[in-house]
Amino acid sequence: MAEEKNNQSVFDHLSELRRRLFYVLSVFVLVLVAAFFVVDPIYHYLTVNALSGVRIELNAFSFWDGVGVYMKIAMVVALGITLPFTLYQVWAFVSPGLKPAEQKATLKYIPFVFICFLAGLAFGYFVVFPLAMSFTGSLNKQLGLIETYGMADYFKFLLNIVLPISLLFELPLVILFLTQLRILNPIRLKKMRRVAYFILVVISVMITPADFFSAFLVLIPLVLLYELSVMLSKRVYKKQLAADAERESKYK
């Protein structure tokens, strides 16, 4: 009997997971179709609106460059818009195994994940990407090179800068979530500060041009994000200690 119940429970979980994935996929496809109608203005904004001051002329080096870039923009738009819905479906799948307080706490993360992602997207595009473009453009001029950019390479360069920064802006929420699970706490984070700073320096150098100013400009918000993470973790940790003390006093 117990074995049958376990098998039935596993089957129910798999059915629920399949249902949630179907919801996410359906919404993603619908948003992807709608995103095709906004690809053209987005493409022209990302190419004509030269934030770096470097005027570039994009070229197609293969028959599929235009189609590939068109699909890539539509998919990024669709992923960004469906992100909150996807996170809600993940929460809905795992929430039955959580306590009511944990359900409310984890549900609060969903809008902030989207907000942090947009903030990282904006910082990467409006700050880091122009620096990278101006640096590479000025270096090419010094070397006497003729700049001929392929549209596929341009958008690959753009996404390789913007997307990692967008993910890095999720750092406070990740640390806050791990603190809620008692995997991390502010004491550990303070002990890890030197290592964390070193990792952030390496990341800032990797995603920016090879000059000190650009790396330093990116490093500042990353350090602030880490310190914000420590502050948030400290706040949650104090609440956990107070709850533990109250629980112990009840059983004494």
TrEMBL record:
Keywords: Cell membrane, Membrane, Protein transport, Translocation, Transmembrane, Transmembrane helix, Transport
Superkingdom of source: Bacteria
A Pfam family it matches: TatC
Keyword check for Transport: yes
GO CC terms of this entry: TAT protein transport complex
Transmembrane segments: 21-39, 69-91, 112-137, 157-183, 195-226
Major localization listed first in the record, in broad terms: membrane
Summary of the function given for this chain in its UniProt record: Part of the twin-arginine translocation (Tat) system that transports large folded proteins containing a characteristic twin-arginine motif in their signal peptide across membranes.
Family the UniProt entry places it in: Belongs to the TatC family.
Protein name from the UniProt record: Sec-independent protein translocase protein TatC
Source organism per UniProt: Fontibacillus phaseoli
